[in-house]
Amino acid sequence: MIARMLNWLFEERLRGARLTETQPWQVSTAAPPSRILSSLPILAADAPRYVYFEGSFDRTLANWLATHAVSEPLRVAPSTIWPRPDCYHVPLRADWLEEAAAAVRAAGDEPPVTHLHIHDGHQLLLECHFSPDSIPAVFAIGVQRISPDRVPAVFAR
């Protein structure tokens, strides 16, 4: 009985949008986190996009996220189950992501989040998983429905 309850609880908790490609295009980079954030608007051309931030944030970035977040336009499957992370959806705007990048630089340019995804409100387009064990930070990115020529050079090795 307890096993069924736990299975239901985690199944419900893990529901949400994920990349659906079985083999998404993946790259890694050792670029500083602030540079990654500043480069994300290149992917937003031609259509509204949102950045989903998941993790534990320092006070400055948490306040910035709370100020700029919109209501959940797409339920994204969390990449972290426990402890339950803070999650924010922020419209992907160059000026706003430059502000976020400045906050990250001011905090030492450490990885600001555990996971960062880009979506269009209907489907997930990109997943970015930050590796907290490497300095400089290494990002593994799965790209779906974004052509490789639109991925900024900052993601290339």
Using the alpha-carbon principal axes, give the shape: globular
Percent helix, as a range, is 25-40%
Q: How would you write the strand order of the largest sheet?
A: 1-6-5-4-2-3
**Secondary-structure element pattern, one letter each:** HEHEHEHEEE
Strand portion, in percent?
Answer: 15-25%
| Tally of strands | 6
Radius of gyration computed on alpha carbons: 16 Å
What is the straight-line distance between the termini? 50 Å
Unreliably modeled segments? 135-139
| Major pleated sheet | 6 strands, antiparallel
Number of helices: 4
- Indicate the mean pLDDT: 75
Structural class: alpha+beta
Describe the protein's architecture and organization:
This protein is α+β, with helices and mostly antiparallel strands and 157 residues long. It is 27% helix and 23% strand. The protein has helices at 2-13, 33-39, 59-68, 94-106, and strands at residues 25-29, 50-55, 86-91, 115-119, 124-131, 138-143. The protein has a 6-stranded antiparallel sheet. A hairpin with a 6-residue loop joins β5 (124-131) and β6. α2 packs antiparallel against α4 (94-106) and α3 (59-68) packs antiparallel against α4 (94-106). The model is unreliable at 135-139 (pLDDT under 50).
Short overview:
With 157 residues, the chain is an alpha+beta fold.
What is the secondary structure topology, with strand pairs?
Blueprint: H1 2-13, E1 25-29, H2 33-39, E2 50-55, H3 59-68, E3 86-91, H4 94-106, E4 115-119, E5 124-131, E6 138-143
Antiparallel strand pairs: 1-6, 2-3, 2-4, 4-5, 5-6
Helix pairs in contact: 2-4, 3-4
